[in-house]
Amino acid sequence: MDVSNDSDSFGETPYAEIKSFFDSAPPLKDSSDIQRKLDEFTRRISLTPETERASRVVCVTSGGTTVPLEQRCVRYIDNFSSGHRGATSTEYFLKAGYAVIFLYRRGTCQPYYRSLPDDPLLECFEVTSESNIAVLPTHRETVERAISEHRSAIIKGTLLKLPFTSIFEYLQILQLIAFSMTRLGPSAMFYLAAAVSDFYVPWESMTVHKIQSSSGPLDMRLVQVPKMLKVLRKDWAPKAFCISFKLETDTDILLKKADMALERYNMHMVVANELLTRKEEVIVVAKSGKITVHRDKTQADADVESPLIKLVVDRHSDYISSGL
Amino acid sequence: MDVSNDSDSFGETPYAEIKSFFDSAPPLKDSSDIQRKLDEFTRRISLTPETERASRVVCVTSGGTTVPLEQRCVRYIDNFSSGHRGATSTEYFLKAGYAVIFLYRRGTCQPYYRSLPDDPLLECFEVTSESNIAVLPTHRETVERAISEHRSAIIKGTLLKLPFTSIFEYLQILQLIAFSMTRLGPSAMFYLAAAVSDFYVPWESMTVHKIQSSSGPLDMRLVQVPKMLKVLRKDWAPKAFCISFKLETDTDILLKKADMALERYNMHMVVANELLTRKEEVIVVAKSGKITVHRDKTQADADVESPLIKLVVDRHSDYISSGL
Q1: Which residues 174-233 on chain B approach chain A with CB closer than 8 angstroms?
Q2: Class for domain B15-211+220-321, per CATH?
Q3: Best interface-test mutation with A: which of B65, B126, B214, B219 has the largest number of A CBs within 10 A?
Q4: Which of A70, A78, A247 sits opposite B76 (nearest CB)?
Q5: Per-residue model confidence as pLDDT tens digits over A209-235
Q6: Rounded to an integer, what distance in angstroms lies between the CA atom of residue A184 and that of residue A48?
Q7: Which segments constitute the DNA/pantothenate metabolism flavoprotein C-terminal domain (chains A, B) (predicted)?
Q8: pTM, two decimal places
Q9: Contact at 8 Å (CB) between B131 and A144?
Q10: A65 neighbors A166 (Cβ within 8 angstroms)
Q11: What is the value of ipTM here, to two decimals?
């Protein structure tokens, strides 16, 4: 859940780096189809009176991005992220009356599927003697909830799911989303929980064919991904409420990084996660101070996302009414 | 689908490298549980009269392995593989009367699920007004087949599924499988379709915490994974029928590599895949010569795995009757 890269050098937005990143990126497949879906989605929302919660849209990014090491990609570097945070948060945003654009890594955790086993088709269903497909009683409730809530969100048009795999796809689609959300002004939110690569291999400097291992050890040089958070905030979606995430395995580094991200990228909030405790608690870092949000330990199935999204929604309301 | 690494230097089995690989690997979780499952599975099969097809077991490996770049793994290098080849082949092996140990990468393609959409729960099911869960008529047949055939294989005990993620887990479990299959002699087969990393970062030389990007570009040195194919064939399972895979994006390199693997690792067969055409045709390389296997293009839903597994099973029969 580290959407930024962490160069300690402050400084201006690196437009040249960003231009060369996008110029060198492979063309986005289905970009016109994605554009069309986004336009329909945001246009419908923007027709809702601003006084209603239903006029709010959050773009939740989820899962890790890959960095191809070869143009015909056999090998790539991946960032660990199950997508659990993004999928769970999406459910709570929908519950809070938001429309959600769920920008997720292919194959990662989906909204409403958290409580299902790894292989629901195998573990939750059986074919009866009359060759009907039946849900095993033990899973009936969770499966029914998953299917009905998930389908209804898609059908009502409050949930738009857009998949990505590589860092190139992720940032290209994020830009399309940001531009199409501008019409929503401060009702738009970015909740950037995806684990975005800090390093990449520029497409043009990439080998076309599979790297051969015949020549001894493999030495690789990766360059830093430009600071897109800064551009998102400053140019792509200057009116939107922006929340980024920091994930570290070392708690000492974590808060220092969160403070830096808040300042450097001018985020409204930074959610600080420590890898091992991130499902129990997170620290929300804002200009007004730090708040530690805990999971309700009195309930077995309570998520830390429940109080987290409540806090985020309240702050977003303040932001909208402040008219900034 | 490149289970070997490709050092062009011939030479003896690198026992020292292999020892240091296993010594430095993080301990395998649930190893006793995996061992128990394997013992039950292979013992039951070994009680079947050798004259019957049912006494044959194939270990199908599927999907790509990851190479962690940090001990508390946030970043890792992955090998592209959907797992489609392994999952599809597993179905045809079961159909041919084999018992299958399916050693698969978590999250990759599963047997019987090929023809289902990406998100079957969302796209194939609906909750009826009586809040029953019903399959949409359009998907009824595929869903019913997926659930019934998959479940029956698990329940009959002809399919054992074992998941892995990292190169360390993969090779540790593969070794357990090989040892427990020795009791089956030549009735055992290894069908090594997994895309195994050629390079890895030795665990002890790995940074414990997340790599920080504050210090400019990232330079990495990875070392070659030891030639496990050679050890599998020579020491772990000397009587088993062994098939390895080569995947290349460059056809010129492909056959040269396949021939080398056949000779160097003493495989019984090497299946050569070209990345872009691998679902249409593969070239089976054996000491007796090369055979190109094509998908039956007259049928829309025919797989190249159908004729491929037929050929493999015939050759395995010859191998068993030859008493080698």
Answers
A1: 195, 197-199, 208-210, 212-214, 216-224
A2: alpha beta
A3: B214
A4: A78
A5: 666 666 677 777 788 888 899 999 999
A6: 10
A7: 181-297
A8: 0.85
A9: yes
A10: yes
A11: 0.77
